[in-house]
Specification:
alpha/beta, Rossmann fold, 6-stranded mixed β-sheet, 41% helix
């Protein structure tokens, strides 16, 4: 378990995009939210507001806000902040919060990957944490870029990032085994809380 310097980390996965709806491996492609995704982002903001309160001045003073720089996460962050009674900005962007990259597989559905790269698809199923697609990353690779980022976090924070990042954080600071973390569902429109070495949905 990686030691951390914060009490609570509230994690929001970006809302749905057209690629999510089509089951495409999105990775670091810069796809915008669709209408469903915008509604999911608003719902996540409402969930946070119900948990941390409605005093926007206190929220701005007591929480730091950080996001992946990809457009879908920035859209989500600004919608969330609006639900908290805050202006769209400021918030910090960090490249280390980008989604896992699937390299040559980005834009493909999983059935398409299985058809075009059958042997590699089997390798990924056998070791989803350690496997990296051609020119892509493994979850283990993402863990290495997130470790130093986690050491920079102090105090309570609200993060908007991606499903792959959430799964890695579950393994690093949420007590989820690396064999299980890559297959955990990460829902859009809900909020994941990391606190005390555990993670839970609200």
């Amino acid at each position: 378990m990686l030691p951390v310097n914060f009490d609570r980390l509230y994690f929001v996965r970006h809302g749905e995009t057209s690629w999510n709806a089509e089951g495409r491996m999105q990775g670091q492609q810069d796809v915008a939210l669709n209408d469903v995704g915008q509604a999911q982002a608003a719902n996540a903001g409402k969930v946070l507001r119900n948990v941390i309160g409605v005093n926007s001045d206190a929220i701005a003073e007591n929480f730091s806000f950080m996001s992946s720089p990809l457009y879908r996460t920035r859209q989500t962050m600004e919608i969330v902040r609006g639900q908290l009674g805050l202006p769209p900005q400021p918030y910090e962007l960090d490249d280390r919060l980008k989604e896992i990259t699937f390299g040559q597989w980005e834009g493909l559905t999983w059935p398409e990957v299985q058809a075009r790269f059958p042997d590699l698809a089997k390798e990924r199923v056998a070791d989803k944490w350690g496997f990296a697609p051609p020119n892509g990353e493994s979850y283990a690779d993402v863990a290495e870029r997130l470790r130093p980022w986690l050491q920079t976090i102090e105090g309570d924070c609200i993060i908007v990032s991606h499903g792959g990042v959430a799964r890695v954080l579950m393994a690093l600071i949420g007590s989820v085994d690396t064999a299980l973390a890559p297959n955990v569902d990460v829902w859009q429109g809900r909020v994941l809380v990391f606190q005390g070495g555990k993670c839970s949905w609200i």
